[in-house]
Amino acid sequence: MKAQKTPCIGMCSTTSLGDAVCRGCRRYSFEVISWNGYDEDEKLAVLRRIEKLVCLILEEKFTIVCVATLESELKKLSVPFNAQLSPYCWLHNLFKKKKKHIESLHKYGVTVHSKLDKIPLHEILAQVDSELQVLSEAHLDRYFYTPKTQLICVGG
């Protein structure tokens, strides 16, 4: 099995802001802290969860027309990406690292879905960030946090 690279893109909000979910790579704070101690299967499980969540949101808004073009442009811009993951994860990294530099998605081999083509890209990306944050936090709450148990005293 190939060693899994960290999904870190150098924008960690778990360490700098104390977020439970990193706004850059979408790992949970405890995953960021424990990453180097994880075995390859644990790392892959984290990467696959992030991939599913990112793809769920991005695929409904964008189409990657040419993966090779996206890959080439990411390399030119030195945007980190994991070739083992979906190109939609690569696109997410581009948006996180270089969104202010994107003049045309076509340059990256990407189109926005027609239902969104009248909306400015920065608004779509704000929506993507918001949806990913909500979805990631909901997943964290559901699968990693347990509800607090109330103690009930019976009979005084």
Key phrases:
156 residues, mainly alpha, 2 strands, globular
Element-by-element helix/strand order = HHHEHHEH
Broad shape? globular
Whole-number mean pLDDT: 89
> Could you list the spans in which at least 5 consecutive residues all have pLDDT below 50?
none
Give the number of helices.
6
**Mind summarizing the main beta sheet?**
2 strands, antiparallel
Strand order of the largest sheet: 1-2
Q: How many beta strands in the DSSP annotation?
A: 2
How many domains? 1
The Cα radius of gyration reads: 18 Å
- Share of helical residues: 40-55%
Ends apart, CA distance between termini: 60 Å
Percent range for β-strand residues = under 5%
Structural class: mainly alpha
Structural description of this entry:
With 156 residues, the chain is mostly helical. It has one domain. It is built from six helices and two strands; from the N terminus they run αααβααβα. It has a two-stranded antiparallel sheet with strand order 1-2. Helix 3 packs across helix 5, helix 3 packs across helix 6 and helix 4 runs parallel beside helix 5.
List the helices and strands and how they pair.
Elements: H1 13-16, H2 29-34, H3 40-58, E1 62-64, H4 67-77, H5 87-98, E2 110-112, H6 121-144
Antiparallel strand pairs: 1-2
Helix pairs in contact: 3-5, 3-6, 4-5
Quick structural overview:
With 156 residues, the chain is mainly alpha-helical. Helices cover 49% and strands 4% of the residues.
